[in-house]
Amino acid sequence: MKVGQSIVHKKTDQDDNLVPLINIVFLMLIFFMVAGHISQSDPIKVQPPLSQSETTDKADPLVIVVSDNKEVAIGQTILNDDALLVKINALFDAAEDKNAFHILVKVDGEMPVDRLQKVLSIIKQSGITQIALATQRKANQL
């Protein structure tokens, strides 16, 4: 200890106050990455019609999303009507269990019925008979 010298206090750095904030942001990021369920969205935005029943499909179907402008999406691949039959046949041929292979068709509730009938007739040409139409649950069914 030196007598007579003044004590010089170390200046606090402005960035020292940011460290707790950065820690909290990283913890929140990790929390939402682990706790949040991130799912792929459909490449074509549709609003399915409301459901009249409470039954749900438990298996993992092939999802086909249909739009008004002659676009059809299987997974993240957007196809036209002509390529739809070829893609369905290729996926059906590659399926391990052909008896369990089924299709879920998602369409907009405001889409004309003739567009849906055209897509369903294309699916029928492939020989697949297990087809379901996606609907939304009503608010009171939740």
Automatic annotation (TrEMBL):
InterPro entries in the cross-refs: ExbD
Keyword Transport: yes
Membrane spanning stretches: 21-39
One Pfam family cited in the UniProt record for this chain: ExbD
One of the protein's GO biological processes: protein transport
Membrane topology of the entry: Single-pass membrane protein; Single-pass type II membrane protein
UniProt-annotated location(s): Cell membrane
GO cellular component annotations of the record: plasma membrane
Chief place where the protein resides: membrane
Keywords per UniProt: Cell membrane, Membrane, Protein transport, Transmembrane, Transmembrane helix, Transport
Keyword Protein biosynthesis in record: no
GO terms for MF: transmembrane transporter activity
Family per record: Belongs to the ExbD/TolR family.
Name recorded for this polypeptide: Biopolymer transporter ExbD
Species in which this protein is naturally found: Methylophaga aminisulfidivorans
Taxonomic lineage of the native organism: Bacteria, Pseudomonadati, Pseudomonadota, Gammaproteobacteria, Thiotrichales
